[in-house]
Amino acid sequence: MARKQLVLGIVAASGLVVAPVTPASAGSYTTASHRAAPAAAPVPKPVERAAGVQKQLKMTLGSKFGGAWVEHGSTVVVATTDAASAAKIRAAGATPKLVTYDARTLGSAQAELDRHARSAPKTVTSWYVDAATNRVVVQASSTAAARRFVKASGVDAAKVRYARSTARPRLVYDIVGGERYWTTKYGCSVAFSVTGGFITAGHCGEVGEQTTSADQQTSQGTFGGSSFPGDDYAWVDVTNQWTPTPKVNKHDGTYQTINGAVEAPVGATVCRSGGTTDTQIWCGPIQQRDVTVNYQEGAVHGLIQANICADPGDSGGALFTREGQAQGITSGTSGSCSNGQDSSDTTYFQPVAEVLQILARDGRQLVTEDGGNPDPGACGDEETKLTGTLASGASGYQPADGYTTTATGAHTACLDGPDGVDFDVYLQKLNGGTWQTVAQSISPTPDETINYTGGPGTYRYRVHAYTGTGEYHFGFSRP
């Protein structure tokens, strides 16, 4: 059988770049003896009442209806071009206001401006019907330009009011894992959103390099950090036009929500999403961890190896569990999804933990469904509540000087850390001059609990950051 080449999947502007040994780059009934009294009709809430009154009067007034709005939080005002309609408006529970133009007339004026929208100068930012002033309001930084636009559109100037505005409206876009982005040279994929941007593969771009949207029409961000070879991770700092989200595109009309970054063991099923193989996600088992891959560009260490296919341009994309735990960033592959996936397909992924630890130094973190931060109320049932911050590999002791009890009973503790870390907690008892661990909670998550029955003595808790960096909330109760 022919030997497969290991490639970094990068989509170049002029086509695919496939080099030998390179990285993959670049969404009830009850009965009673008597009849129960009829229940009182629910009282409509102010907004519901206003909407009902507006709908009723819009239908009954017809061409005499001039619009409706709410004043002082609860007073419904209805405009009309017919003074004789005032009694009907009051009977409906609203306050009448006599105006010059009916709603249809002003709506037609707005529609005329809409038809000429392409000719509107950039200094004109918006236009709308304002029922309260009985005019079409045109907002612009240049009133003169707005007047010229209205005149050219053929709209009666008497129906228009001009409002000066320095606003510059812009579209807002979501950052979603598994979707395409571009540099000046390559097409790569987003892995996961982090505070202020997203993480991706290091071989996709160097520090300072600019990125654009999937259609290459919208500026997106700048590589704020990049490491390759040795590692294969990077992060992109996006502009305020882009919003990082806790989502990965599954390319079937649905999205995977990311809940954290708990490390999955070898043998666990994981799934990959990327911008090239964008008709579905591809899933398979983790075959190995801590793999060194010797690309032509240099060796990359500590990678995840999985039986999943990938293609050029999938680089930087997301590897995650079906439970929504972020695992890795697509690096390189020796297979292809062009003919489907088989047992020989192998793709390598940079674990997310390393880059998340680096970003945590600046207070940045993985964007998750619940916001990622530890919940201050998570350990609310405990008598004593404390907070702390840990760097990866470090330990903290709570309380710092320990506590002494003369009773036998339950020692309970609760630890709540940020998403994407693995924090553990140990209960230690002083024996002579040595602290000995008597209970522990060491799951691969940021959250732990202990419930231990012990006798009199001096105790303390050791909180340890097995992986990851960040703030934690801790609570404990003593006998």
Automatic annotation (TrEMBL):
CDD domains: alphaLP-like. It comes from the Bacteria. Gene3D superfamilies: 2.60.120.380, 3.30.300.50, Trypsin-like serine proteases. The keyword Hydrolase applies. Keywords: Disulfide bond, Hydrolase, Protease, Serine protease, Signal, Zymogen. The keyword Protein transport does not apply. Residues 185-354 form the Peptidase S1 domain. Residues 1-26 form the signal peptide. It comes from Actinomadura meridiana. Coiled coil: none annotated. InterPro entries: Alpha-lytic_protease_prodomain, Pept_S1_alpha_lytic, Pept_S1A_streptogrisin, Peptidase_S1_PA, Peptidase_S1_PA_chymotrypsin, Streptogrisin_prodomain, Trypsin_dom. SUPFAM superfamilies: Alpha-lytic protease prodomain, Trypsin-like serine proteases. Pfam families: Pro_Al_protease, Trypsin. Residues 103-157 form the Peptidase S1A alpha-lytic prodomain domain. Belongs to the peptidase S1 family. This is Streptogrisin C.
